Amino acid sequence: MALSDVEVLVVDDEPAQLEVLSQRLAAWGCGVSTAGDAPAAQAILARSRPDLVLTDVVLPGVSGIDLLRQFKERDASLPVILMTAHANIDAAVEAMKAGASDFLTKPIDAGVLRAQIEAVAADRKNREGARELDAALDQAPDGGLIGESTAMRDVRRQLELLASSDASAILSGESGTGKEVAARSVHRLSKRSAAQFIAVNAAAIPDGLIESEIFGHERGAFTGAATARPGCFELADRGTLLLDEIAEMPLALQPKLLRVLEEGRARRLGASRETEFDVRVIAATNRDPMEAVQSGRLRHDLLYRLNVFAVTLPPLRERIGDLPLLVRHFIRVFTVKHGRAVEGIRDSAIDCLMAWHWPGNVRELRNAIERAVVLARQPWIEVSHLPPHLTTRTPARPFELPPETSLADAERLIISTVLERTGNNKAEAARRLGLDVKTIRNKLRLWGREP
After folding, report:
1. Which pLDDT belongs to residue 226?
2. Distance in angstroms between the alpha carbons of the first and the last residue of the chain
3. Which of 10, 115, 310, 342 has its CA 20 to 30 A from that of 16?
4. What share of the chain has pLDDT > 70, as a percent?
């Protein structure tokens, strides 16, 4: 924002000082209003709102600090700079406690004053940008699927069409692109919205428990089954069931799942009869579904049963123009969650975020903004509040194995290195290495790096 967009109110009972400051500010392109005392300044504030107030400490009738307090009672966000010919530490401390933006000594240093006005201009630009993003967020058709890029508009259209039917679907996309958010959006927009939305992550459940998790079990069905427990299909009756990371489901379980999907009935482990249900199933995977079939991770008949409707969520790097809107959304969320007063983010910090390639996609961005909101002790998120890996551009180190490395040590080094380069994102590391997420987890447990 140019300085010509900044309106400054100057309050001083010395006509010569008013003239000097007015001419300097006008030469910089600022709009200038002047007042010789507190009542005149209050009258100006009653009919207009300047972007900055410069006021002398010594005024007739009311001190500049008292005037500052009056200004702050009227508008706490109004920047006020106090000026004095007789600076002392106690006065400066009192002024800052009252909410002064700065405390300048006469004669005013032109460079310092201009820097203050440029900061005000930057803050005003950031506030206007935040208001524009807030307006766009408020008008978003679905608060969970944020973005105005062509890719996201297309995704929203597909999900709205999917929600209008009762068809099964597969949502694909890299880890962190928002597949569960998309599935919840379909549920919320569908006729099933009044019933339960249940999400099950096949990659996060041990193989020995996943059948019980999906189909349920009766008391005594296996060791430790002290009580009966419904499966996810029963819990989602008349609602929506998300089977996340479907390509990580054990192959032995996939035929049973296919039968349940086709017949609409399931038998709990240890039960003698089947239970009927009415569930809309959405599957999700961070792999290409056809590649998962070709590699033997997913049965082709199960894919065809689920793949009535397919939606691919784009990675964040392919819709980077949506990043400012996503950032604003997360700032709104986390200022409430953590009780902060963050108004927005500096352009320099946005530029830094836009330059990153986001291997963890929207999830990684969400975590970065939550961290920044927690660290920020001021209205604006600065570059210094962002995670170090976003602000320090170091080229990726070439990966070399030491001579005579054993196969086991090589495996450990490779997995550890890829995990480090993906920010410990196991799903992304598994994708890059062509492994199952469970394989990564099992290796880490073996090496004592995961409970």
Report:
1. 66
2. 52
3. 115
4. 90
Same domain, 257 and 161: yes
Task: Please report whether residue 436 resides in a domain.
Answer: yes
Across all residues in the chain, what is the average pLDDT? 84
Q: Identify the three-state secondary structure at position 341.
A: coil
Specify if 97 maps to a domain.
Answer: yes
Domain that holds residue 98: 3-136
In terms of Cα–Cα distance, which of 299, 311, 314, 315 is closest to 169? 311
What is the domain-level CATH number for residue 430?
1.10.10.60
CB 385 within 8 A of CB 371: yes
Distance CA 124, CA 128 (A): 6
* Backbone φ and ψ of 262, nearest 5°: -80, -35
**244-273 pLDDT, tens per residue?**
999 988 898 899 889 888 888 877 777 778
> Which is nearest to 232 in space by CA: 259, 194, 196, 256?
196
Give 330's contacts (C-beta < 8 A, 6+ positions apart): 365, 366, 369, 370, 373
Tokens of 345: 């983010």
Would you state the pLDDT for residue 124?
74
- φ, ψ for residue 198, nearest 5 deg: -120, 130
Provide the CB-side half-sphere exposure for 309 (13 A, CA). Answer: 19
Judgement on whether residues 278 and 180 belong to the same structural domain of the protein: yes
Domain for residue 234, yes or no?
Answer: yes
Mean pLDDT of 402-427: 78
Closest CA to 421 of 397, 442, 439: 397
Query: What's the CATH number where 360 sits?
Result: 1.10.8.60
Whether residues 229 and 321 share a domain: the answer is no
- Domain boundary (88, 106, 136) is at 136
Burial class (CB in 10 A: 0-12, 13-18, 19+), 70: middle
Please, what is the Cα angle at 376 between 370 and 379, to 5 degrees? 110
